Amino acid sequence: MSHFSTVKTELRDRQALVEALHDLGHPPAEGSCQVRGYRGQTVTADLAIPQADGVDIGFRLNAESGSYELVTDLELWKQPIPVERFLAQLTQRYALRSILASTAEEGFQVSEQTSHLDGSIELVVTRWDA
């Protein structure tokens, strides 16, 4: 019996997801990766974050929704924060990376970035028109 759980997300941009994972100190392996779980069971994912305890964290693209789903054995989750908090932090970094990419595409530059005590991030972007 598989112990893997799949958690739906709204993370659609692979590059922003990879960058957000790097920001959080979880550089993922990319490609067709095996995510390990309970008693050596594995599942295939597009991104994998190997863990020393053998219970990895993975993300795989759901073709129907177009978003990446978290796949891991939640019963054996041993991260320093709960999975809900992990996803909240990841979603925030993902949003930041997405905004930075889209503003750069539009010719904006970040002139100020401030992290607040409540965990929020404030960005000021500017663009000089000729």
TrEMBL record:
Which InterPro entries does the record associate with it?
Uncharacterised_Ycf35
User: What domain of life is recorded for the organism?
Assistant: Bacteria
Say which species the protein is native to. Answer: Cyanobium gracile UHCC 0281
| Protein name per its UniProtKB record | DUF1257 domain-containing protein
